[in-house]
Amino acid sequence: MPTKPELALDPVLEVEDLKIHFALRGSGFARLLGRDTGTVRAVDGVNLDLERGEVLGLVGESGSGKTTLGRAMLGLVAATSGSIHHRPGDGSPDTDIAALRGKALRQRRTRLQMVFQDPHAALNPSMDIETAVGHPLVIHKRASGDELRARVVSALERVGLVPAEQFLSKYPSDLSGGQKQRAVIARAIILDPEVLIADEPVSMLDMSVRAKILQLMLDLKDDLGLTYVYITHDLATAKFFCDRVAIMYLGKVVEIGPTAEIFAHPRHPYTQALLKAIPDVDPNKAMPRDLPRGEIPDAARPPRGCSFHPRCPLARADCGWEPRDLKALVEEHWTRVPVADYEREHALVGGLADLDHSENRAVVKPHGGTVADLDALFDRIRTENAAEPLWQGVTSITATEDGLVFEFAPAAEVPLRPSGPTEVACVLYPPDPS
Ligand SMILES: Nc1ncnc2c1ncn2[C@@H]1O[C@H](COP(=O)(O)OP(=O)(O)OP(=O)(O)O)[C@@H](O)[C@H]1O
Ligand code: SF4
Ligand SMILES: [Mg+2]
């Protein structure tokens, strides 16, 4: 187990209120009609500092925005808003990577490199290892001839591809998965970067070589004075590898802090659920794809208030309950009732379109019956599901001439706030009174 140094605050990257929203293309027909086809909020207001010399883990379920955030740190994906300040250690000027374009961005990217998940795809099968690893030096006109070869040999030696001369003329297909990832790492360090962003760098490798590659990365970090962002699903390697961990959920950091603290005293209910699902942090288990209470929601339509509220076992009235949650509850109810009941109820509520939104008020109109019938139906569903936390967020249900009116409690703000040595975005951790 590596020792984890106390960090003096000296951020190499400062991410401020970063948002990356992708426009959904939708069908050609929808675009022809000029319909809004929506946006995916892949990164939705992230603030974090990457301290020089640390390993910062970005951990979260599939689709939480880890890769998009990592790629944005290199300027590989355009920011919708916000900034990513790079403070180089070599005396060159501070720059907002999110605002850089063209040559300036390419130059800056020599200081920040990425190691991808799939080493097979990262290496051109028709390029020998000498050409592939030396490519960045050629592109940036940093070396040629004998010096180029010497630097490639040195990089290969550093990553343990020895004797290096024997690897120069090999092709990716001659290498094992672990050797390929070593070659990818050699290519990433050859320009002497200060930050490596490693996106699931060992998840496609055999179990037997994962620890070796991670140990190599730790050795390189010490030898070359690197800083890492380590993107992973895998809590076990995050625990072993990272100084700090940022837990991401639907484009937001919901908890960030020292690794030991996050694992010993997880505060955010999402972090708690992740860790509880893997009690011993078994090295053979990756993050569970399904936590209790359903799947990760659609990033194009994130839940109101705290995005975790539909799955949160500790949710309160002010966590952002909305008509869509009631829709989901009725749909779940329909999976349990006889078909004849389902058909009658479905006809009465008109397919639940009246609940398919995120406002704090919904009017469900009776489609095949009366408001009193609707009232009786929702009363039954409520009694059957009395323990559902959703009801805490429903402040009133009123039968009116228009239909059955549901009012929902206002959603509290849930920014990241300090809590002990960590920061947490959850209403259960209010601001310090001090
Ligand atoms: N180029 C794109 N266009 C549209 N949507 C995208 C694009 N890239 C990512 N997304 C969406 O943004 C969200 C975040 O994706 P991202 O790949 O960053 O997640 P991730 O945490 O890395 O997931 P995984 O663990 O599966 O790699 C997802 O909903 C994804 O579908
Ligand atoms: S704010 Fe906290 S308690 Fe509320 S839903 Fe989110 S994680 Fe759960
Ligand atoms: Mg990813």
Core attributes:
single chain, 434 residues, alpha/beta, Rossmann fold, 3 domains, 8-stranded mixed beta sheet, 4-stranded antiparallel beta sheet, 15 helices, 15 strands, 33% helix, disordered N terminus, binds adenosine-5'-triphosphate, binds iron/sulfur cluster, binds magnesium ion
State the CATH superfamily name of the largest domain.
Answer: P-loop containing nucleotide triphosphate hydrolases
Number of domains: 3
The succession of helices and strands, N to C, reads: EHEEHEEHEHHHHHEHEHEEHHHHEHEEEE
Q: Report the CATH architecture of the largest domain.
A: 3-Layer(aba) Sandwich
CATH topology of the largest domain: Rossmann fold
The helix tally amounts to 15
- CATH class categorisation of the largest domain: Alpha Beta
